[in-house]
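Render this sequence as a predicted structure.
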Amino acid sequence: MSAHTDQPILSAKPESSLPDPTVDSDLSTTENQTPEKSPVPPPPNGGLNAWLQVAAAFFLFFNSWGLVNTFGVFQTYYEDTLLSTYSASSISWIGTVQGFLLLLAGVIVGPAFDKGHLKSLVAIGLFLVVFGLMMTSFSRCCRWNRLCISIPPFYSRRGDLLSSRRALATGITAAGGSIGSVIYPIVFHKLIGPVGFGWTTRIIAFIALAGSTFSLAVMKQRLPPPQKARSLIDLSAFKELPFVLLCFALFFSFTGLYFPFFYLPSFFSDSLHANSNISFYIISVLNASSVVGRITPGLIADRVGSLNTVIPVNMIATIMAFAWMGIHNEAGAIVFACIYGFASGAIVSLPPTILLRLSPNLAIVGTRMGMVFTCAGLGLLIGNPIAGALLNLEQAIFWKAQLFCAIMVVTGLFFFIWLRLLKWRHGEGWKF
């Protein structure tokens, strides 16, 4: 289970969620067609159906990124109990591979969504989540990592809301991943003692089944599939410096960003010697703060620009990442979790809207979105195993891994600032 990114549905906002702004492209294309050729009804002005799509997408994020971002409590449990003979670095590969595959899946299934296979994709993702959790519940050794969270985040795109409410709807959708990662650690902690690891994991699987079944029942594709599906890769994008800078910014940010989501419980138990309750609940605190970080900065970005918003938020994350090395008490660590969780939520939710401004036309945004988040996924894949190799849990030495995390996040900030200065020189104006 694992981060993030949570990615939303209505506009280009991720959660650790991958949106697909080609919806806008589809809408624009539809508007330019004559009614005789493509009699597509206009998007509903809000209403029950539109908000049902928001609710459905919320539960998909709840049961995909919500599980991924929960991996920190599993990491601690595996280190202490199930996989105690393995290093923290080896165990963290389980969570990072899951997060990477979740991001990568969006690239692979995008064309299938474009061809109108929404229901099939949701059903396959639902089966893999529940089946993977059930298989995990029967595991007794390290081979449990066959668990697979494959719900593709951007099958949930829709154009069903008033543009004036898209920020709110997108924020609600993206918050599903964070709220899921608040609730699942609590469920895990409350059940692990009375019923054991196996039934705890099965109950989590039943919760995921219930929420995702609702999504499968109500989600539907409003627009007909385009005649030509988008390509997986746009090689010309790598000739554009702004796009390359964004790729590097996300790669380095995601390399360091998720270290607290995996190891903060271990920090509480091994370094601060906190009781087991706070060690488990700290992941819920971290993700609860991320809920606010996914919604509030998005609303601000609508007014001042996404890049202008993500830079100061990234600065906050950088300051907190460096400050973490000097924190040696529970109160300070809780404050760190709240502020860092808020900042991380914004960092994973704002980049897709930045990409919208960088793309020459909306027809290729979906392809480039997949490319950008593949870079982010690679950072997530390698970041925590590297940080885990720098840890010494027996002697409670965390500062090396904390420093690595901070350096990666500040490097990502450097590329965001470089991108902003470049666009300023190109005369893009103050709002970007």
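Summary. The longest helix spans residues 166-218. The chain is about 70% helix and 0% strand.
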